[in-house]
Amino acid sequence: MGGNSFYRKAYPRFWVSVRGLGPLGKLVAKYLIDGPQTNRIGLYNFSEGKALEDLEMEYETFSETFQATLKMMGWKYDKKSRVLYIPTWWRWNAPENPNVLKGNLKDLLEVAKSPLISEFYSNTEFLTPNLLETFKQTLPQTVPKSETETETETEYKKTSTSEIFLNVTPNVSKEGKVKRTSQEVLKAGYSPGFLKFWQSYPNRKGGKEKAWQIWQGRKKGKRLPPVEALLKALEVLMNSEDWLKDEGRYVPMITTFLNQGRWTDAEGGEAGGVEKHDPACEMCGGTGWVEGEGGRMKRCPGKKEVK
């Protein structure tokens, strides 16, 4: 996501805002405001494992500094969805004009489902009047879907963020449901279930768009298990001897995994041979894996489960 913006202006006044954080706190704050995981709107998917690797910090040091920085700066992190939000983003990264703002807002298409999206919608404190008008016109007038909304309901939602940003005109049936071609669904953005799987998979070679196309094809043909079952199988495989061998050299590409239905490799398997992580581990949430260089997953250096 950081690729959406190759450089940003530096504001000397930013350092006034981080007084009292200490050297490490200032480093973390600077990383969160313009590091490689950021995007153009200050609401972005965030991997603590990737941050730990980029900043070359010990887990305990980073975790403590990260929490202190969020608290002092008033920034927010949804650990469940792994989404970080900086409410003062527009103060430091104001778009130069309305057209730039429209382009920036397309970054919302990549953000995982999170309650923080609602806060982003309602926070317009640092937008100038002309930008505010564009912001209101560009954003959808509907509230983001609730946590209980199903993936199917998401795909047939009459008004979506994606349709407004990409000008996809929905074909509505008499019953009021949106009928879309596979290409329109692809353009309209990824489903929450797919994003959850994508973020968890260790070898993303093959590409997100191609993986999404395969996902949709299998789902349409009813050849895709429920997301939770898929993630459970993935957890077993990620702790298997074959996948751990030679630093994950034999983990299939995500497109191969989906094409060949490789989740069946986990049937009857046990997740063994690897020390399990504490479910409360802030780095990996208990999975034992964190995101490393190039989006490839690696073993989490955080807390091990207490036996």
Notable traits:
single chain; 307 residues; mainly alpha; 3 domains; three-stranded antiparallel β-sheet; two-stranded antiparallel ribbon; 7 strands; 42% helix; globular; disordered N terminus
Describe what you observe in this structure.
The protein contains 16 helices and 7 strands. It has helices at 14-17, 22-34, 48-55, 59-73, 89-92, 98-105, 116-122, 129-138, 151-155, 161-166, 182-187, 192-200, 208-220, 227-238, 241-244, 254-259, and strands at 43-45, 76-78, 83-85, 171-172, 178-179, 289-291, 297-299. Strands 1-3-2 form a 3-stranded antiparallel sheet, covered by helices on one side. It has a two-stranded antiparallel sheet with strand order 4-5. The protein has a two-stranded antiparallel sheet with strand order 6-7. Helix 2 crosses helix 4, helix 6 packs parallel to helix 8 and helix 12 runs parallel beside helix 14. The two termini are 39 Å apart. The relative contact order is 0.09.
